[in-house]
């Protein structure tokens, strides 16, 4: 199911990590969190802890991943979104 919601320009490994971390946060009962924080946690883990020198995560992917995640999990408002819509919203 998560692959269906993955924005086409986001690498599969990055999308899976983002979903996993966002799910962890939601499982604690939080109803709002910062998507940028999740990206930084992923970046830290992959580059520092896993020593994955090849890992790349672009900050510009955050808005599209946030929207796709909230649509997939049915949790509008979990991430703060600015007024712009993206291709993923229009396609649904």
Gyration radius (Cα, Å) is 13 Å
- Bulk shape: globular
Query: Which runs of at least 5 residues are low in confidence (pLDDT < 50)?
Result: 88-92
Largest sheet, in brief, is: none
The SSE order reads HHHHH
Mean pLDDT: 89
What structural category characterises the helix and strand content? mainly alpha
Structure description:
This protein is mostly helical. The protein has 5 helices and no strands. The longest helix is centred in the N-terminal third of the chain and has 16 residues, at 12-27. The protein starts with a helix and ends with a helix.
List the keywords.
mainly alpha, 92 residues
Helices and strands in order:
Elements (H helix, E strand, L loop, with lengths): L1 H4 L6 H16 L7 H15 L12 H12 L13 H5 L1
Helix pairs in contact: 2-3
Can I get a quick summary?
The protein is mostly helical.
């Amino acid at each position: 199911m998560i692959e269906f919601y993955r924005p086409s320009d986001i690498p599969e490994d990055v999308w899976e990590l983002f979903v996993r971390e966002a799910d962890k946060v939601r499982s604690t009962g939080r109803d709002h969190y910062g998507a940028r924080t999740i990206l930084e946690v992923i970046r830290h883990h992959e580059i520092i802890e896993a020593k994955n020198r090849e890992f790349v995560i672009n900050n510009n992917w955050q808005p599209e991943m946030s929207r796709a995640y909230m649509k997939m999990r049915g949790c509008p408002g979990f991430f703060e979104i600015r007024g712009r819509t993206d291709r993923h919203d229009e396609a649904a």
